[in-house]
Amino acid sequence: MTFSGFKVIKEALTGHKGWGPLWRTPEPKAQYDVVIVGGGGHGLATAYYLAKVYGVTNVAVLEKGWIGSGNVGRNTTIIRSNYLLPGNQPFYEFSMKLWENLEQDTNFNSMVSQRGIINLFHSDGQRDAYRRRGNAMMLSGAGARLLSQADLRERAPFLNFDNARFPIKGGLMQERAGTARHDGVAWGYARGADMRGVDIIQNCEVTGFRMDAGRVTGVETTRGVIGAGKVGVAVAGNSGRVMAMAGRRLPIESQVLQAFVSEGLKPVIPGVITFGAGHFYISQSDKGGLVFGGDLDGYNSYAQRGGLPVVEDVLEGGMALMPMLGRARLLRNWGGIVDMSMDGSPIIDRTDIGDLYFNGAWNYGGFKATPASGYAFAHLLARDEPHETARAFRFDRFARGYVIDEKGVGAQPNLH
Ligand SMILES: Cc1cc2nc3c(=O)[nH]c(=O)nc-3n(C[C@H](O)[C@H](O)[C@H](O)COP(=O)(O)OP(=O)(O)OC[C@H]3O[C@@H](n4cnc5c(N)ncnc54)[C@H](O)[C@@H]3O)c2cc1C
């Protein structure tokens, strides 16, 4: 089944009887060339690119819940490539380019919307830092524009410009950034992988690894033992728990991040806006809800819900930035477990166990990385060497002192 405008019109005129399920529900086979643990955005994108780009189709994605039940369906949907450091910038720019062609590539409407992101600055020092970042972005082809206060007053007149404590002096804009429908991304990759022969097996939790002579040979699951030539782990917030089953301790902490959505409003927020004097970011969904978030809850947890102190903190940040927020009613909030690394940057690498590969440490910014992460992990699994944009994301960077500390806050996961 392919999607097209013609197909939509035909179905509308014939009672919508021609739509089928987006992927099959296969029984697990005894053996696969590659088993991916985790059916989030990254696991599904890996399977898709393995099949499409590298021709490896005897692949299973094992998901303990249902597709989209993890962070891929819980995030605030922001995509961007406004990074500074050489370890990060080429990778996120590669991801941005894949986003720009994603819907044509997967033939699925993931509602990728390049509505732009504006990072506000509130002091002269912050303006200098953003200008430096903007220069790095222009060098890598990501594109950047420095906005004056007058530009901002025109684009976003509702901002609290004259707040004596946090005066808004301007912003750094990436026009190619924006949002995408998060679960639509998971569904598009799942469908594309399934069409190429990948088995997507839901309600199948990995509970252990089978090893022989220092190599992984398969996984134990709630649906039996499944043999594998190679195993790729992409379980985001559960990275520590799953890798502990292989006897490995990771430089990762799991913490809760909350998201919030208001009642539906007429279009008011022009793109994505982030507060530079506090941690607050906001956009507006196509349904009209204001979608926003802020800081981590700040303690280790595997509960997919957060606490009230952070609810208060996020809403205070929002009110300081745009007092009109106080007039909207909050519709709902939720939490997801994010895998925070010591330097705030990801890991895509082999492990010291033969044929066991790891993809994780996405912190709270891994949604935007989904296409490049899947591509780079597929490359690593298929070729056994890192993708050129992901060479820096190694396990041993902490031991070698090559941390990629984009925020410059040191080895403190809850500050990244
Ligand atoms: C509230 C919130 C807001 C965010 N906002 C943004 C944003 O605006 N922009 C951005 O770029 N990023 C954002 N992120 C981060 C982003 O969502 C994550 O970094 C990214 O989704 C993680 O990768 P994933 O999609 O593969 O994770 P997941 O969707 O969590 O996938 C991992 C999967 O592994 C499965 N799993 C776990 N254990 C096992 C097991 N033992 N066996 C089988 N399966 C298992 C889980 O059920 C899960 O489905 C946000 C995160 C949260 C929580």
From TrEMBL:
GO terms for molecular function: nucleotide binding; sarcosine oxidase activity. Residues 34-78 form the Rhodanese domain. Pfam families: DAO (PF01266). It is found in: Cytoplasm. GO terms for cellular component: cytoplasm. Its cofactor is FMN; FAD. Keywords: Cytoplasm, FAD, Flavoprotein, FMN, Nucleotide-binding, Oxidoreductase. Gene3D superfamilies: D-Amino Acid Oxidase, subunit A, domain 2, FAD/NAD(P)-binding domain. Belongs to the SoxB family. NCBIfam families: soxB (TIGR01373). This is Sarcosine oxidase subunit beta. The lineage of its organism: Bacteria, Pseudomonadati, Pseudomonadota, Alphaproteobacteria, Rhodobacterales. The gene is soxB_4.
